[in-house]
């Protein structure tokens, strides 16, 4: 099995605000295999967005504070990097798409100017004009792509060395050099009329279009890991379907590893290979998506899956999880889920919840759950 | 039809297109948005009518028309057989007792400076003078029916979670014992686990109190559980109206089919692409 | 879709029409205020030892025996034809103002330059380090400028700090060579005449009064930039800029500042208009030969024509500064439509 591209170990993040300390993430550990899509699902405030922002170190510090943990990305601990080296990780190594397409593009610049920045950064790093942290482009693999022709672009001669070579080296490339690259990436995200789109401002585009441009921008840097933080939650249902379809197709073509954050169980089922379920800052279950969905090994996962309404009114009441999510600044002692858990035993109140470990009676070794009684989850109705 | 409490006949609602500069100089052009474009529908007693569609389809406008939060451009609305299309003043206040609205945003629709008993009791006060003690005891009785502790009378809305606030809105609507509650995206700001609790509560209340609901939502799963009949709206018109099982399991209109296919979980990709056009008459292009 | 350049022309045209209305109002108000406040300035104009006959002659010569409305209309009609009257000593008003106004503009522009080059980066630094020591220092700095009365700041600079740095204390160029003055702006004129030593001298003379003027208003630019940066920094597009791998400098100054400048520009436009009136005090302290000093002189000497003339130029300055700010606002924010 290939080396994991991302390995998060015991990541704990607090938010220190006036009202107290909120434990947004508690000892979260998981691994991502290259070329796979890992979904993270959970309710509002479970810490999934904090996790997404912690990996490329985008959390605002303060109020956020990374208390403990390591984020191993291709052999480097991102949490140990000095602040000035962070831009070198972002873009070409880790990129991200945000939830609100209305806010994620800069309203003051044309689409072209925003896209060309991304392409330029990649080219500067690829040609050694600006420093890099990761030299080889593995495990990112564009060679299998028939339609985007990204590899072809790379074989094209670079900007010729002029007498002012030293100057050009400092200045980089001219603005128009990358026009064809930018157009190519717009076509990659199925924008039919890229020439026109280039000269528009973000406010002149629809939400779905903006999200496509965000995807193009992220992919144009060829990141080895793409984090998608609720990329379709703000879109209408048919537009969401279009964007999801596009992302699925791109996953075939581009084969980048994706960490896909969503609150929507259906979206995760469509997109992800593996899924992690989060509850109150803890990762309570992680495993291949089919297995987790068909035979969950944590009572919260089971309850969450059953809450999705699938029946009509005359079929009887919806199975629902009683109680509500605990306050992150005053988590219950023991396993955080025990006050709502039908399987709770005295040990669950006494001892802190078990670490995420291989679930008992699970089919595959990758299926992990953080529950003392994971083998009994199946019997829950 | 005799058992219809609301009859909407040939309703139109047009909004002028306004453009603003610094929000100061407003200019009204002759262009209009056809938000609701000639629809007719009945809402029957003890029935839930689900209204589904995408943003800009006019579903919220239609709901607001029924609650008379907007005035109709053309057409009529009858409540309990009485024409309420042009009611003003005290007549309008009287229908507020029969029709209540629960809004989408549980944060923005509750005044943060008021206490629970004031918020929930507000519609009752608007109907006539009530003593403070009477109102408090009435609210205290009502809170458990929406699943809130009766002792939370003096709390403020920010002390509640999103689901708790939506229960408060529901209690506020119930206090005048309305016949119809317009539910405007009641669960779209909530997570699935909380949504299931609220949906169950809605169904229980309907059985106990004989309520009718007009449920406006883009959430097909929620509509499936709550509604008896479903109307699918597209560009201000109904694409399809019918029994919930018929519409969701055997859609006839191509738009309904596409909408259902677009739901995540469905294995196939949507049969068409392109963005829903805005309801502006042709001639003004938009991307 | 998008904006039409011709919309901008229409927009500017409309605003200039408004300027005419503003000027009319300003002239009317100033005229009646001065004439009601001092109904008979001839007592002063004719000097302490004037005879009754001289005063009567003065009254007659200046039409002061006619009804105020008649005086007003005859003044207006002369104003439109370009005859702005003379001072009590017979010096024509318009030519004086035309040679003095550019000097004030030079002072104001230099002060604005200081405010932009210093005030805006300070605001960025403060916002980016919000709550930390850099923020506290910047806030103390601009609040002290704000709290200092205009004259006090000027006096401190001119008496204490200026000499300590070896800068000339006043704008009166004693050592100034004579050469043709096409612009009536000392630095520009010296440069045009290729007289570089004079240009350096003029710049040195500018530094103190311009910094006095800028120091007082620096807080506005800094505070506005800081506030709007604090609004912009948590926006998703700043995160987008970071995740692209841009350096912190580009994220701050290319992506975040560009959007927060939108509100700073509006404030700077309003401030620039206000700076003009502050020059009355500053020019007096630093003996700067602009219209601020002239305004002071005109008011104290009951020079009505001069006062109204200065007020007209101040009004034009304020309106044009706001117009420029609005145009810049639209250029910075592509979502604004010219209407």
UniProtKB/TrEMBL annotation, chain A:
Native source organism of the sequence: Eiseniibacteriota bacterium
InterPro entries, A to Z: AAA+_ATPase, ABC_Ni/Peptide_Import, ABC_transporter-like_ATP-bd, ABC_transporter-like_CS, Oligopep_ABC_C, P-loop_NTPase
Primary location: membrane
Domain ABC transporter positions: 6-305
Keyword Translocase: yes
Family of this protein: Belongs to the ABC transporter superfamily.
UniProt-recorded name of the protein: ABC transporter ATP-binding protein
Compartment annotation: Cell membrane
From TrEMBL, chain B:
Domain of life where this protein originates: Bacteria
Single Gene Ontology BP annotation: transmembrane transport
Transmembrane feature ranges: none
SMART domains: AAA (SM00382)
PROSITE patterns: ABC_TRANSPORTER_2
Residue span of region Disordered: 266-287
Domain ABC transporter: start-end pairs: 6-260
Xref: SUPFAM superfamilies: P-loop containing nucleoside triphosphate hydrolases
InterPro entries membership: AAA+_ATPase, ABC_transp_ATP-bind, ABC_transporter-like_ATP-bd, P-loop_NTPase
The protein's name: ABC transporter ATP-binding protein
Biological source species: Eiseniibacteriota bacterium
UniProtKB/TrEMBL annotation, chain C:
Main location class: membrane
Record's GO cellular component terms: plasma membrane
Alphabetized UniProt keyword annotations: Cell membrane, Membrane, Transmembrane, Transmembrane helix, Transport
Superkingdom of the source species: Bacteria
Xref: Gene3D superfamilies: MetI-like (1.10.3720.10)
Family annotation (PROSITE patterns): ABC_TM1
Localization annotation: Cell membrane
One GO term of the biological process aspect: transmembrane transport
Transmembrane segments: 16-38, 107-128, 140-161, 202-220, 267-288, 308-332
Membrane topology term: Multi-pass membrane protein
Assigned protein family: Belongs to the binding-protein-dependent transport system permease family.
Protein name according to UniProt: ABC transporter permease
Organism in which the protein naturally occurs: Eiseniibacteriota bacterium
